[in-house]
Write a structure and sequence with these properties.
Layout: E1 5-10, H1 17-33, E2 36-41, H2 44-50, E3 60-63, E4 66-70, E5 86-90, H3 97-105, E6 111-115, H4 123-127, E7 131-133, E8 140-144, H5 161-169, H6 172-181, E9 191-195, H7 203-211, E10 217-222, H8 225-233, E11 244-247, E12 250-255, H9 260-269, E13 272-276, H10 279-286, E14 291-294, H11 302-314, H12 320-334, H13 340-348, H14 350-365, H15 370-380
Parallel strand pairs: 1-2, 1-5, 2-4, 5-6, 6-8, 9-10, 9-13, 10-12, 13-14
Antiparallel strand pairs: 3-4, 7-8, 11-12
Length: about 375
C-alpha cells in the first residue's frame, strides 16, 4: 500500500452536495498534496452536471489528476494489494463489503476515515478525530468533522482561493467578461442575486416581494425543481435553462448547471447569494458576500438545530440589530414564511453584511483548510 494512494468513496444522495464536496476534496488532495487519488462514485450522471468532462458510460477515467471509478453494485473482488493506504468514506457511505474484507486482510491496516457532515453545533469538536473500532473487523474507523472552530477539520478551501476571489471582485473587466459569458448584460444599477435552493413554496411570496422592489433585481436560478416552481408562478410549463421570467422590477434567468469554478465566480459576482446544503454553503462563505442558507432538511427537524448553531456563531460578530435581522430572515426562509417583514431590513444592512462576510472568511481561513488538515491527521498515525 503506497502511502500516497487514497481511495475516496462517494454515494450520491441529494444529487449535488455529496459529489460536489467529494470532487473538490479529491481534486485538491491530488493537485495540492500530490496524492494518487481514486474517487469511487455511484452516480456518474449527477457528477457530470458539475463536471462536464465526466463520461457517465466509462467505468474508469481521469479528470484533473483524479482517477474516477464507477462504484459498481455488486462490487468486484478486491485484493489487499489493491487497497489504498488511506480510505475515506464520505458522509458515512461505508465502502462495499468486498473492499472492507480486503482492508481487513491488509498489513499494515489502511487508515480509514469517515469525513462527516458539516455542522456548527457544539458537540462537533468533541467528536472530531474519535476512533470507532469496527465490530467483527480488525479495523478502526476515525471520524473527521469539518467545522467552524479550532479543534475541527475546518472548511474546504483551495490554495489561493481567497486571493483569486478578491482579484476578481476588484476587476470590473473580468466581471463584465464573466457576465457576457453567461449571456447576461453587465450589472449596472441593479441588484443581482443567485438563488440555489431546495424546492419550496416560500419562493413564490419572495418573488412577489421582489416584483415590487424599488430597485431592479436580476435573479439567477439553476435549472431544476425550484426553477420549475418559479416557471409555474409565471405560467411557464417547463422553465428550462435559457428561460427568462419575471414581472415588475424582477427578472429571473434560468441557468444551466455550471462546473464548480464557474459557480464560484457567480457567487463572487452577485450581491446576495441564496445557497443550500453544504457545498454551495461553504463556497458562499468564501465569496465575501451576504448569504442566505437553506440547510438540507432532516428527520426530526435536525436541520433547525444546525441552522441555529451556525447563526449563533455567524451573528456573534454582527451588531445586535444586524444580527437580529439576519436571523429572522434566514429562519423565515427556512420555515417557508413570507420574508416581507425582513427583506428591506436585510438590504438596509447589506453593506454591514458584506464587511462581516469578509471578516468571517478570514476567520475561517485561520483554521486551515480541510484537505490539508485531513492529510495532517492521516499522517499522525493516531487519532489525537
Amino acid at each position: 500500500m503506497p502511502a500516497s494512494r487514497w481511495d475516496v468513496f462517494c454515494s450520491v444522495v441529494d444529487n449535488f452536495g455529496d459529489i460536489g464536496t467529494c470532487w473538490r476534496l479529491a481534486r485538491q488532495l491530488a493537485g495540492e498534496h500530490g496524492l494518487n487519488v481514486r474517487l469511487w462514485v455511484d452516480d456518474l450522471a449527477s457528477f457530470r452536471r458539475i463536471n462536464p468532462a465526466i463520461d457517465p458510460d466509462q467505468d474508469v477515467q481521469r479528470s484533473r489528476g483524479v482517477e474516477v471509478r464507477r462504484w459498481l453494485t455488486p462490487f468486484p473482488a478486491v485484493t489487499p494489494q489493491e487497497v489504498a493506504a488511506v480510505v475515506l468514506d464520505t458522509f458515512a457511505c461505508t465502502p462495499p463489503e468486498a473492499y472492507l474484507r480486503a482492508m481487513a486482510a491488509c498489513e499494515p491496516k489502511p487508515r480509514w476515515v469517515n469525513v462527516e457532515h458539516l455542522s456548527a453545533e457544539d458537540w462537533v469538536a468533541g467528536c472530531h478525530g474519535l476512533p470507532s473500532p469496527q465490530p467483527g473487523l480488525p479495523l478502526t474507523k476515525y471520524f473527521f468533522f469539518p467545522g467552524f472552530t479550532a479543534g475541527t477539520g475546518g472548511l474546504l478551501r483551495e490554495r489561493g482561493l481567497l486571493e483569486a476571489r478578491r482579484a476578481f471582485q476588484g476587476d470590473a473587466v473580468a466581471q463584465a467578461e464573466f457576465w457576457a459569458g453567461l449571456g447576461l448584460p453587465p450589472a449596472h444599477g441593479e441588484l443581482r442575486l443567485s438563488l440555489f435552493a431546495y424546492d419550496c413554496a416560500g419562493v413564490v411570496p419572495l418573488l412577489r416581494l421582489w416584483e415590487r422592489s424599488a430597485r431592479p433585481l436580476r435573479v439567477l436560478v439553476p435549472e431544476g425543481a425550484l426553477a420549475r416552481r418559479i416557471g409555474g408562478h409565471y405560467g411557464v410549463a417547463e422553465a428550462a435553462a435559457g428561460a427568462v421570467l419575471g414581472a415588475g422590477a424582477l427578472t429571473v434567468h434560468v441557468l444551466p448547471f455550471v462546473e464548480q469554478d464557474r459557480y464560484d465566480r457567480l457567487l463572487w459576482a452577485c450581491d446576495v447569494n441564496f445557497v443550500r446544503g453544504e457545498d454551495s454553503f461553504v463556497r458562499a462563505q468564501w465569496a465575501g458576500r451576504p448569504l442566505v442558507w437553506q440547510p438540507y432538511r432532516q428527520a426530526e427537524d435536525a436541520h433547525s438545530d444546525k441552522l441555529r448553531a451556525f447563526l449563533h456563531r455567524y451573528c456573534a460578530g454582527l451588531g445586535v440589530q444586524e444580527g437580529a435581522v439576519l436571523r429572522d430572515l434566514w429562519q423565515a426562509w427556512n420555515r417557508e414564511e413570507g420574508m416581507a417583514p425582513h427583506w428591506d431590513g436585510f438590504l438596509a444592512h447589506r453593506a454591514a453584511y458584506t464587511v462581516h462576510a469578509e471578516l468571517w472568511a478570514r476567520q475561517m481561513a485561520d483554521l486551515g483548510d480541510l484537505a490539508a488538515n485531513l492529510v495532517a491527521f492521516c499522517r499522525q498515525g493516531k487519532a489525537r
